[in-house]
């Protein structure tokens, strides 16, 4: 038996299947990779071909706009990659009049039940045509945040675009501002809600009492729906000032941070590597990664050094990123004796330059050993590309050449950098070259070098940068952690910081006295009462299966006044009512009428409730007494510190245990009750926390993490071990 499916229904099933697979794969982002998309925010009725032409032209304009920043940037693994992407998938809407029964049936099946009510969740498989790409940033997370900075600059320069960015952690922009997010916003409700638009962060809201604009937290809007809401209500969608400030604080320092994140060091490297790095400084990244991730097979190619012989080494200045320099510097490596590379004694003034050059040479040799020799056919000049002329005009409009005369040395240097950037980012290649192939191609295309001339230039090298930033003291680490904690109040160091601000210059003796006084005040400022009070506030805070909410200090929590509640409370204080003012009147004054009605209805049940409550208390008291008697026979009580309120009587009573046995049973029970002294909860809490901190030996642990999250900072243990 066979049956036929209508064409429209068949197309719908195929589209639904494709969109479902894309929806399942949309969060499958590789580790250490960031994905970004730029959408046209203005709705239009243009055809797909017109949209493609418009976005393709925008790609060229965007790359020309950010080229001055990208040309001088060294990426850890992959550069930013902006390309046109056509529309994918299709977002399904509610069935209209004339829809097939199969469409209606499938649409109903897509609904989900929430608390007994059918809630429609929009299907999010459809992605409109956009500009996008992905970048693997590896160990340098600054590459990811630099891309965020670029997206903010792009959306500010091109207001018709809105950007989305995420990595394998999801919406990492929200993670940065996690302390200031609204309660309803979490990883399950943030999908397709976070955008960068006009240089600012925007979050699609949830409808509230103040405004009906937004999507319910149970609804996942499609990208098209989100862009439409962002276009019609940009002010409502703008993130709060605290969230925006948290993002700006993370991006603070750009674009100047590009240069401050570089490190220049002297290195003894083969002359061929010096020639390559002079033309392509960015090739330092794949060479360091090749050495950093080497294996025994890679080191086999470093026994002979066919590409970069060691007898051509010269001293030159090499530019790293701080991440690349740290990876190269911290690696311990001994070269093969057959390689021809040797190191001077560690006491040698240029030992570090020899060691860095040795490691770099191995990295470049490993890169070249992984690929074949390049083709002898010369590549077509970049000027033959039809996009080159427009790209140069865009660079000139954006002030890339800084007014340099055409044909000058600086102009030619900037043009050569622009050509390298154009080949990597703008010009489309059918088969991209690997880093090793690019190195070999540069070696074959460049002119033969003059080794003697390069050695003469060693005396004219600029001074290298200091690498003291590699060493972080305990105080620097504390400061970094304090800055990352969001500026929470430091309970223990408020007094010390205030006293330091009041210091004035004076004689050496006076400064010494002031320093001693400050140390004493600082030690006195660490209040143990604050520890116990902070723990009590933490235990009283709201908690659920998702975790506990940290209590906020009074300095950060806003102060709100309810005028009606305040007027009602003042009326009771002034004798307007016979009732006494209760501590909960400020919170429950609005519900007084409802409580009176409930009290009238519950009068008949008061007697039964009181009887049940009395029985419950009596049984609980008997249970607690039995527990106390059982615990008295163990050593558990010895681990707690007790408050002895009758020390004099206890010291005077030194009767023998055998004498106590002769006492009547009633006297024994009274004596047991006297022996059970009350516990000082605060003293035991602080004692156990300090013991836990001491056992951590300065490392991270549960006690220090808990106190840090509560904003309580304790000084390091100064007692002798």
UniProtKB/TrEMBL annotation:
Chain residue ranges for the region called Disordered: 485-521, 577-616, 634-678
InterPro entries (UniProt xref): Ecd (IPR010770)
Bias kind Acidic residues: ranges: 581-602
One Gene Ontology term, aspect cellular component: nucleus
Origin: domain of life: Eukaryota
Biased composition (Polar residues): 635-657
Biased composition (Basic and acidic residues): 504-516, 658-671
Protein name: Ecdysoneless homolog (Drosophila)
Record organism: Haplochromis burtoni (Burton's mouthbrooder)
């Amino acid at each position: 038996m066979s049956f036929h499916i209508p064409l429209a229904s068949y197309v719908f099933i195929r589209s639904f299947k494709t969109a479902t697979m894309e929806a399942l794969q949309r969060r499958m982002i590789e580790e250490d990779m960031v994905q970004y998309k730029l959408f046209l925010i203005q709705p239009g009725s243009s055809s797909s071909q017109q949209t493609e032409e418009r976005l393709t032209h925008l790609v060229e304009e965007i790359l020309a706009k950010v080229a001055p920043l990208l040309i001088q940037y060294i990426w850890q693994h992959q550069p930013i990659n902006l390309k046109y992407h056509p529309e994918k998938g299709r977002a399904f809407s509610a069935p209209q009049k004339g829809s097939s029964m199969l469409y209606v049936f499938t649409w109903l099946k897509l609904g989900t039940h929430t608390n007994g009510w059918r809630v429609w969740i929009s299907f999010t498989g459809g992605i409109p045509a956009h500009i996008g790409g992905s970048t693997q940033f590896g160990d340098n997370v600054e590459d990811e945040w630099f891309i965020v900075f670029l997206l903010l600059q792009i959306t500010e320069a091109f207001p018709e675009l809105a950007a989305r960015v995420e990595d394998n952690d999801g919406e990492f922009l929200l993670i940065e501002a996690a302390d200031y997010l609204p309660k309803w916003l979490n990883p399950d409700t943030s999908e397709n809600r976070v955008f960068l638009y006009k240089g600012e962060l925007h979050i699609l809201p949830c409808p509230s009492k103040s405004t009906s604009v937004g999507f319910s937290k149970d609804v996942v809007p499609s990208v098209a729906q989100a862009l439409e809401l962002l276009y019609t209500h940009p002010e409502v969608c703008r993130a709060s000032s605290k969230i925006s400030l948290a993002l700006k604080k993370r991006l603070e320092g750009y674009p100047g941070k590009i240069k401050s994140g570089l490190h220049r060091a002297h290195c003894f490297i083969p002359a061929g590597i010096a020639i390559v790095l002079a033309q392509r400084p960015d090739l330092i990244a794949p060479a360091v990664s090749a050495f950093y991730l080497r294996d025994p097979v890679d080191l086999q190619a470093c026994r002979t050094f066919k590409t970069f012989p060691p007898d051509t080494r010269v001293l030159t200045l090499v530019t790293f990123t701080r991440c690349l320099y740290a990876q190269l510097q911290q690696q311990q490596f001994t070269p093969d004796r057959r390689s021809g590379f040797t190191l001077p004694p560690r006491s040698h003034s240029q030992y570090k330059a020899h060691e860095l050059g040795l490691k770099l040479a191995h990295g470049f040799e490993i890169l070249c050993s992984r690929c074949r020799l390049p083709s002898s056919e010369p590549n077509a000049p970049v000027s033959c590309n039809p996009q080159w002329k427009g790209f140069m005009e865009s660079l000139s409009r954006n002030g890339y050449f800084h007014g340099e005369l055409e044909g000058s040395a600086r102009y030619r240097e900037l043009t050569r950098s622009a050509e390298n950037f154009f080949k990597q980012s703008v010009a489309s290649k059918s088969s991209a070259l690997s880093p090793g192939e690019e190195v070999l191609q540069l070696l074959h295309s460049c002119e033969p070098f003059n080794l003697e001339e390069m050695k003469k230039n060693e005396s004219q090298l600029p001074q290298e940068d200091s690498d003291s930033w590699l060493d972080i003291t305990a105080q620097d680490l504390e400061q970094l952690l304090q800055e990352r904690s969001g500026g929470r109040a430091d309970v223990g160091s408020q007094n010390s910081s205030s006293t330091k601000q009041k210091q004035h210059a004076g004689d050496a003796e006076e400064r010494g006295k002031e320093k001693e006084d400050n140390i004493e005040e600082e030690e006195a400022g660490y209040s143990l009462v604050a520890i116990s009070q902070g723990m009590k506030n933490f235990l009283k805070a709201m908690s659920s299966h998702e975790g506990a909410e940290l209590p906020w200090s009074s300095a950060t929590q806003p102060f709100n006044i309810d005028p009606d509640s305040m007027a009602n409370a003042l009326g009771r204080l002034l004798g307007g009512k016979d009732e006494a003012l209760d501590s909960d009147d400020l919170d429950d004054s609005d519900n007084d009428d409802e409580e009176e009605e409930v009290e009238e209805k519950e009068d008949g049940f008061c007697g039964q409730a009181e009887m049940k409550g009395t029985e419950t208390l009596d049984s609980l008291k008997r249970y607690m007494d039995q527990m106390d008697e059982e615990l008295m026979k163990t050593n558990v009580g010895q681990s707690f510190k007790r408050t002895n309120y009758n020390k004099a009587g206890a010291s005077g009573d030194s009767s023998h245990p055998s004498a106590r046995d002769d006492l009547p049973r009633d006297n024994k029970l009274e004596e047991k009750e006297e022996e059970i002294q009350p516990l000082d909860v605060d003293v035991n809490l602080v004692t156990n926390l300090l013991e836990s901190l001491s056992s951590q030996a300065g490392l991270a642990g549960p006690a220090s993490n808990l106190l840090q999250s509560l904003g309580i900072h304790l000084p390091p243990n100064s007692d002798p071990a």
